[in-house]
Write the structure tokens for this entry.
Amino acid sequence: MIRVVCPTCHSKLSAKDELAGQSRKCPKCGTVLTIAKPETATDFDEVLDEAGDQHAEAPSQAKLPTFEAPERLDRQNRYLICDKAKLVATWKNDGHGWMLKTGFGMISATRNHEQLPAQGNFKLVELKIDMTDDGLRLHGLAVYQLAPRWALTKLDKGDDQIVSSVTGAGWLNRDQKNVVRQFIKDQFMRQVWEDADNVLDYLGNTDYHSAGVG
């Protein structure tokens, strides 16, 4: 395990070795931390002495959240990509592949690769759908951060290629939550989402640090 000290609240944290070089938010105060490689990991006893903090948690009591990137798109779920404030692309398992949102409606990413943006701050949102005896039901949502460059240029190369551009867990701001909420209401009949209280609460609250629910 790699030992880390939050520079803001001075909490002692621990992270798995495979997270070296990645960024995670402190579970106590939300500060973004870069997890150092083991050979350069912070000596947190020394840091705490300098900070004079006698009440930080032990490593075993505070864990940085782990993250596993999806290997492929789940064929039962729906996906959308948004930038800082608007819908950019959508996907469902209907054989049409990724569709781009334009001022004239939705167009095929495969046939319009020249319109794929090369860079930006994009989030991949997974809407988790169950098939029940009563039909489709929304039960969860996950957010993934995409690489800032070349991520969307993969949308015309196959349905699942986008997952190779996932860099970690993502978080939605207020505008992005509004985009996702509107997408759900536009794309699904009310009975699909009306009982998904966890998703509706997540999209309606001011929690801009969680990577989804359910």
Notes: The chain has two domains: 2-61, 78-213. The chain is about 15% helix and 30% strand. Residues 39-65 have pLDDT under 50 and may be disordered.
